[in-house]
Amino acid sequence: MRKLDTRTIVVASHNAGKIREINDLIGPLGFTATSAAELNFAVPDETGTTFEENAAIKALASAKAAGIPALSDDSGLVVDALNGAPGVYTADWAETGDGTRDFQMAMQKVETALQEKGAAIPEKRTCRFVSVLCLAWPDGHTEMFRGEVEGTFVWPPRGTAGFGYDPIFQPEGYGVTFGEMSAEEKHGWKPGDKAALSHRARAFKLFVETCLEA
To answer: Is 139 annotated as a binding residue?
Structure first.
C-alpha cells in the first residue's frame, strides 16, 4: 500500500459526466485536478476484460504522460439475467458508430435484451453498478479500489440527473432511481462519513481510507 503525498493529480478520463462526479468527490479533499481530456491526452485503447484491467490502462497512461499521479475510474452496469452484460462493455453499448454515445439507446438495448429473456418482473431484473478506481504513479505502481451497489433495472427510465444509465438504476432500499437523485443523494457520502451509496462513492471511500488517511 502506498500513500498519496500530493493533492495534484490527473483525472484519467475523457468522459465529462465521470470527470464531474470525480471532481465532486475529490474537491472537498483539497485536490487540484485536471483531466486527461483537458490535457489533450490520447484516449488509450481499453483492451482489458475486467474493470480493474481497464482502470489500470487509463490511469497508467495519464500518469506516465503527465509525470504525476493519475486517478481513473472504470465502471459499468452488471445485469444478472444477461450473464453480467453489459459489464465492462457498458459504454460500448452506447456507441452510435459516429464517435458519439447515446445512452438512451443503450438503456433500450438492455431493456430489449431483458424482455427477450422473459425478465419482466423486478425480481428478474437484479443488477449492480460497479466502479473500480485506479490510482497510478509515473513509476508504474498502482492501487485499486472497488465499489458496488445493488439495485433493480427499471423501465421506463426515470429522472434526468446524473449521466449514463442512472435513469434505469433503482438502488436497493430506495424508491427512486439515480436519475432522480441529486449528486449529494446519489453518492450519500463525503469525507469522514461511514456510509456511502453509489458505487463510485464506495470506491472513493476506500481510496480515502487507504491512501489518504494516516
So the answer is: no
The pTM assigned to this predicted structure is: 0.93
Residue 24 is a catalytic residue:
no
- Which position among 5, 24, 73, 74 bears the catalytic label? 74
Q: pLDDT at residue 167 above 80?
A: yes
What does the H/E/C string look like for the chain?
CCCCCCCEEEECCCCHHHHHHHHHHHHHHCCEEEECCCCCCCCCCCCCCCHHHHHHHHHHHHHHHHCCCEEEEEEEEEEHHHCCCEHHHCCHHHECCCCCECHHHHHHHHHHHHHHCCCCCHHHCEEEEEEEEEEECCCCCEEEEEEEEEEEECCCCCCCCCCCCHHHEEECCCCCCHHHCCHHHHHCCCCCCCCCCCHHHHHHHHHHHHHHCC
